[in-house]
Specification:
Elements lengths: L3 H19 L3 E4 L2 H9 L3 E7 L4 H15 L7 E6 L4 H6 L7 E6 L2 E7 L4 H9 L3
Parallel strand pairs: 1-3, 2-3
Antiparallel strand pairs: 2-4, 4-5
Length: 130
């Protein structure tokens, strides 16, 4: 039987979990319109160019996920670009390889890395968006 205490504890957990999600960075598939809107709003932005078959890209995912949960980056928008399917966007950003991360502070590119799987240096790259 479910007691009032269990219901209240569940509600508190759900509220705490919801608050954590509310602080998380926003992650989106790349579109020109979405990117332009984020730039116009002056948001911190990371463009992550990835490929599903790329082991380096897979290694970057948990690092970026952890960064996205950091309250410092609550306004961060991460745009995912599919290296294989979005060749026009890859060319637009002058990207030569998957696993490329590009940091923007509004409309200004502030940093870029290729093939990086070091959590500290990826964190430093993302910090340049603030």
């Amino acid at each position: 039987m479910i007691s009032r205490r269990h219901i209240l504890a569940s509600m508190a957990l759900a509220t705490a979990f919801g608050a954590t999600l509310a602080q998380a960075a926003e992650q989106k598939a790349f579109t020109d319109a979405g990117f332009a809107a984020a730039q116009k709003a002056g948001k911190p932005i990371v463009v992550a160019v990835h490929a599903s078959w790329c082991p380096t890209c897979k290694a970057q995912v948990p690092i970026l996920s952890k960064i996205e949960q950091d309250p410092r980056f609550k306004n961060l928008v991460v745009f995912r670009v599919d290296f294989d399917a979005q060749k026009d966007v890859v060319k637009q950003f002058n990207v030569r390889m998957q696993s490329t991360l590009i940091a923007f502070k509004g409309a200004t590119e502030t940093a870029r890395s290729v093939g990086d799987t070091n959590a500290d240096s990826i964190n430093a790259l993302v910090a340049k968006t603030l």
